[in-house]
Amino acid sequence: MSVRKHRSQPYQIKGVDALFGELPLAEVAAEILPLSQIALPQQQPRRYFDPMAMQELVESIRQHGILQPILVRPLLDDKYELVAGERRYRAAVSAGLEEVPVVIRELTDNDALQLALLENLQREDLNPIEETEGILQLIALKLNTTSESAIALLNQAAHPKRNSVDNVIHSKDWQLVQEVFNTVGKFTPESFRTNRLPLLTLPDEVLAALRLGQIAYTKARAIAKVNDLGQRQALLESAIAENLSLTQIKQRVAQIIDCSTNQSDRSQSSSLKNRMDVTYRLAKKSKIWENPKKQKQIEKLLAELEKLFSQD
């Protein structure tokens, strides 16, 4: 089946011009392409799709078709790789469509991945983990570095006492970082570093629930304050099953921490008593009493103990 022209809404990703310069996607006419000729990319930024939201999109496509074309780039053997529009692609497959409107552009691997990330970051249903990882990956691609180096640069700019912050914020790399945040339009570098980077160090089970959209990131951060794995897992399951509010979660976290502290205090008290018993038995068997110099030390220690116990 050949590619043919198609009239649809113009293709547009907010911020494309800022990040890519001359890439007039909105000016490119859409074409019709068989779904069988479109392949998903090996590196896909999006991992989780809300089932309810996807079903709504499937029903919309069944009734109205795909209003905004999918962005693809040509491969070998008359095939095309999906660049942006994975939700629409998946929904079209579920809706039983045989062909979809597309915009075809020649793109490098780097540009294709950046466009895919940028479109995903503009979705309202993107979960906080994917959003955080997506922004870091976008920064890393712009700087031609790793996500770890991008994190290091963000931290560097926030600690002037340990690093030369002036050198960082006036560097070309930092200008590119600012461009990314200005394009995404949801965070400043500092708010992203403070509120989103900590999500990447959450315990595995909390991170998994957050990635699946089962819990809000504010609730996830509160639950992560529970150190005990069993207690944390139980609280996480309750928070999801009972749809606990952030206030309720914080109350339960406080109770768990308070209980753990009291148990620790009781354990420490019991340990001190045991040590006192052991010391007393050793003292009775010791020959220290025959040493005049050590007798004076014992007198001082006994006097301090007597004073301490009399204050109870």
UniProtKB/TrEMBL annotation:
Q: Where is the ParB-like N-terminal domain?
A: 31-121
SMART domains recorded: ParB (SM00470)
Coiled-coil features, chain-numbered ranges = none
According to the lineage, what is the superkingdom? Bacteria
Report the InterPro entries cross-referenced here: Chromosome_partition/occlusion, HTH_ParB/Spo0J, ParB/RepB/Spo0J, ParB/Sulfiredoxin_sf, ParB_N
Q: Could you tell me which PANTHER family the record lists for this protein?
A: CHROMOSOME 2-PARTITIONING PROTEIN PARB-RELATED (PTHR33375:SF7), CHROMOSOME-PARTITIONING PROTEIN PARB-RELATED (PTHR33375)
Stated family: Belongs to the ParB family.
Put simply, this protein is called ParB/RepB/Spo0J family partition protein
